Amino acid sequence: MKFAVVVFPGSNCDHDAYHAVRHVLGHDAAFLWHKETSLGGADVVILPGGFSHGDYLRTGAIARFSPVMDAVRAFAEQGGPVLGICNGFQVLLEAGLLPGAMLRNAGLKFRCEHVHVRVDQTDTPFTASCRPGQVLRLPIAHGEGNYVADPGVVQELEERRQVIFRYTTAEGEVTAAANPNGSIHNIAGICNRTRNVVGLMPHPERACEPALGSADGLVVFESVVTALADAGGVNA
Amino acid sequence: MLARVFVTLKPSVFDPQGNTIAEALHQMGYQGVTDVRQGKYFELEIGASTPEEARSLASEVAHRLLANPVIESYRVEVAEPAGRPAGGAA
Question: CATH for A2-231, among 3.40.640.10, 3.40.50.880, 1.10.3720.10, 3.40.449.10?
């Protein structure tokens, strides 16, 4: 199975994602410069974390116009699994591949710490191997992760079960104290209507080995391998 | 031709930065400032033959890039730069 890790100017978690896929998971991975117009036959696309284009204007606002994004959009529209992590999530929001937007963290602090995230839905390619309600301990590192959307959009996200990850306590309880950035409804990650595009602020790719303090993030990548193998379209 | 674009958060969107600035002003004694909303200001030099054309182009780029319509609104002003002859090359 082949993963493409898109590299924008200013991406800085691209190597983390590559390492997780290639060295921990044992699958093929390739970097894809943002000026490319083809995904090179990738089965999964990862938009990694970082500060694309220096976060100028708004996070992800410039990157969404990179040439590669046309190919990512076409891939997503064909049902291809796309994972946006942190800045990658922000790029997906700006591109309109996921609904909503990001504001500065409510406390204005850049939050760099481990948090607990509850998996609320398991019918996406990136959570298929999770238990419903499973709590993952994952690192976050962002200044603009305060997810916001119009009330009608939030209601629709909830009704369509598109909220995939929520900030919770270690026991899986949604509380204000467990919310590191002020995101509405403690939203840490969402999917699109067709459920193949997932974005989240926490970094599962940085939590794939015990040496890193947590291996809870590996299940996200294992999920997509299993999901694609089950779908039968790809040789795992 | 100069187009000015003002981008501000929609009234319904909480502005953590503006809120923090307002708190600082209150600590400085400026109780008369009851609220602060932080925004962005852009100056676009546009090679257009009419103000309407410049406005139309500025509005388009404001909508597509300068503002995020999910959380922000924008306002466009078009004016000949002061001190330059009307109709001259911008």
Answer: 3.40.50.880
